[in-house]
């Protein structure tokens, strides 16, 4: 299985958004009153956006975008095959995306995950994230 990280396209992100893992769909439902795969893909293309391909098929989208002066939000979502891409995404995050965001003057990067999404919370911890607060009304 070959994982390749490439710049995101509307086509690839729309495909991934149309085939989301249930836990990603639940988290996205918390953020939008109504959404479609195309709308989610367009929203994700703001800032830095990448796709992880597994054997040539887009399986995960991830990136970061500036919300306001120095405050960024990081995101990721994918298909059921996303788990196989996580090591490559992690390596890319540490070597490319993290330094890109830092070079733009980020002083804080937020990444939100539902408390029930234990896999996402563990991954964020491995990336060096620190839990700052609980958002009980979120979701």
Describe the overall structure.
This protein is of the alpha+beta class. It has one domain (3-126): Aminopeptidase (3-Layer(aba) Sandwich). It has five helices and five strands. The chain has helices at 10-18, 22-31, 37-44, 86-103, 118-126, and strands spanning 3-7, 48-54, 57-68, 71-78, 108-110. The chain has a five-stranded mixed beta sheet, with helices on both faces. A hairpin with a 2-residue loop joins β2 (48-54) and β3. α1 (10-18) crosses α3 (37-44). The longest helix has 18 residues, at 86-103. 29% of the residues are buried.
Task: Give me a quick take on this structure.
The chain is an alpha+beta fold and 139 residues long. It has one domain: 3-Layer(aba) Sandwich (Aminopeptidase).
Uncertain stretches = none
Query: Biggest sheet, in brief?
Result: 5 strands, mixed
Termini separation comes to 35 Å
| Shape assignment | globular
Strand percentage lies at 25-35%
* Series of H and E elements: EHHHEEEHEH
Specify the number of helices: 5
Look at the structure and give the mean pLDDT. 93
Number of strand elements:
5
CATH architecture: 3-Layer(aba) Sandwich
- Spatial order of the strands forming the largest sheet: 1-2-3-4-5
């Amino acid at each position: 299985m070959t994982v390749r990280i490439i710049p995101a396209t509307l086509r690839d992100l729309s495909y991934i958004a149309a085939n989301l893992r249930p836990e990603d769909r639940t988290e996205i439902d918390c953020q939008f009153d109504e959404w479609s795969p195309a709308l989610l893909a367009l929203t994700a293309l703001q800032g830095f956006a990448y796709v992880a391909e597994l054997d040539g098929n887009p399986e995960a989208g991830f990136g970061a975008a500036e919300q306001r002066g120095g405050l960024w939000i990081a995101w990721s979502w994918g298909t059921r095959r996303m788990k196989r891409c996580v090591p490559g995404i992690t390596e890319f995050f540490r070597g490319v995306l993290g330094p890109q965001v830092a070079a733009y003057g980020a002083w804080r990067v937020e990444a939100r995950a539902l408390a029930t999404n234990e896999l996402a919370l563990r991954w964020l911890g491995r990336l060096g994230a620190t839990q700052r607060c609980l958002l009980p009304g979120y979701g």
